[in-house]
Amino acid sequence: MGDQTKKLINEAVREGNDNFFGFLLVSAQAAGHTEAIKKLLLGKVKGIGNTWKVAAGSGNIEVIKKIWGWAEVEMTKHEIKKKMLLGTDGKGRTAWHIAAYEGKIDVVQKIWDLAKERLTTAEIKNEMLLRTYSDGMNAWHTAAYWGEVDVMQKIWELAKERLTTEEIKNEMLLRTDGEGRNVWQIAAYSRKVDVIQKIWELAKEILTTEEIKKEMFLRTYK
To answer: Do 80 and 118 meet the contact criterion of CB atoms below 8 Å apart?
Structure first.
């Protein structure tokens, strides 16, 4: 498959044309183009992006399901883990992080459910919830920056399934990005009033009065 074909397929996925994508996938599979499909769906193609991550970023649940179904037949469990669940883009983001970045809450939940079948508890914790990108932000920070309150709430709920209270405090509320800002300061910087309110409500569950004073109101950064 040439670059132009890859671009057309990714564009169809972005536009929600599931039937067109499904037809191409079945046709290519019938023709025995397994490696070509694998490269298209999961490979790192400069300037184009792979279809798995495009589907995650565009919120296309049906394509996510189709690709996963194809992978379960054509790929090993190790490949699914390394290339689909843990594979990253140039900024260090997995498909799950891209979905969070784009505010695609249904995809965030779907990939989380798939990950629970394939990843260890430690991998879910370290590679999904706590993983930071090139800018030092994790998925929760990114959702805060872009004002995705529903995604923030979803990730918070998922984190409570897997992290201790101390880890939630240190890795979500108090962890700083590359500029030395915690999530409260990131939200303030990006002027997301509803996010500031949400973080305030969640912080009161975890932080002491002194921590709220020191880390939220008085803390300075670069």
So the answer is: yes
The range of the structural domain enclosing residue 81 comes to 1-118
Domain match, 84 and 2 both: yes
For residue 83, give both structure tokens: 């290339």
Spatial distance between the Cα atoms of 52 and 80, rounded to a whole number of angstroms:
11
H helices within the chain, ranges in order? 3-14, 18-30, 34-42, 51-58, 61-74, 77-79, 95-101, 105-118, 121-123, 139-145, 149-162, 165-168, 183-189, 193-206, 209-211
Express each pLDDT in 56-112 by its tens digit.
Answer: 999 999 999 989 998 998 889 999 999 999 999 888 899 999 999 999 999 999 999
Number of domains in the chain: 2
Whole-prediction pTM: 0.89
Among 63, 47, 132, 122, residue whose Cα is nearest residue 91 = 132
